[in-house]
């Protein structure tokens, strides 16, 4: 986390895309892989259910184009990702979950265009 000022070097001819969200005390989608807007056009909604430990949402997938949810855990993570549930999804739709530090990636693949509801269940880290 940072406050007030962020400095970054950008070489000539390059660009950088930053996804900036308020820091919260629960997992949240930081960005997606679909578009440079980091989820604005493809992530329909997301919701954190603290009682159940579930982050859920709905995304627009493009057939044959792997889609990645990039979820960030709070700075003092007390949760770890457990399972991914695809709600009423066709059998051919797949989900792969990977964690690297505070970043959780959920890779979703569909053979056809699809609006997909997903749920990521988190468990206590201890």
**Architecture per CATH nomenclature, i.e. the level-2 architecture:** Sandwich
| Average residue-wise pLDDT | 90
Element order: H for helix, E for strand = EEEEEEEE
Shape: globular
Q: Could you walk me through the main structural features you see in this protein, from its secondary elements to its overall organization?
A:
There is one protein chain. The protein contains no helices and eight strands. It has strands at 28-32, 43-49, 54-61, 67-72, 79-87, 94-100, 103-109, 114-124. Strands 1-4-7-6 form a four-stranded antiparallel beta sheet, with no helix packed on it. Strands 2-3-8-5 form a four-stranded antiparallel beta sheet, with no helix packed on it. The mean pLDDT is 90.
Please describe the topology of this protein.
Blueprint: E1 28-32, E2 43-49, E3 54-61, E4 67-72, E5 79-87, E6 94-100, E7 103-109, E8 114-124
Antiparallel strand pairs: 1-4, 2-3, 3-8, 4-7, 5-8, 6-7
A few lines on this structure:
This protein is mainly beta and 126 residues long. It has no helices and 8 strands.
List keywords for this structure.
single chain, 126 residues, mainly beta, Immunoglobulin-like, four-stranded antiparallel β-sheet, 48% strand, globular
């Amino acid at each position: 986390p940072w406050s007030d000022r962020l400095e970054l070097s950008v070489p000539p001819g390059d660009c950088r895309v930053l996804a900036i969200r308020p820091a919260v005390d629960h997992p949240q989608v930081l960005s997606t892989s679909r578009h440079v807007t980091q989820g604005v056009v493809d992530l329909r909604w997301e919701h954190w259910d603290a009682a159940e430990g579930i982050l859920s949402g709905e995304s627009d997938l493009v057939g044959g184009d792997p889609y990645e949810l990039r979820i960030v855990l709070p700075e003092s993570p007390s949760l770890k990702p457990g399972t991914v549930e695809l709600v009423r999804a066709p059998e051919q739709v797949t989900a792969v979950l990977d964690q690297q530090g505070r970043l959780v990636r959920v890779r979703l693949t569909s053979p056809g265009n699809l609006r997909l509801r997903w749920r990521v269940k988190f468990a206590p880290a201890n």
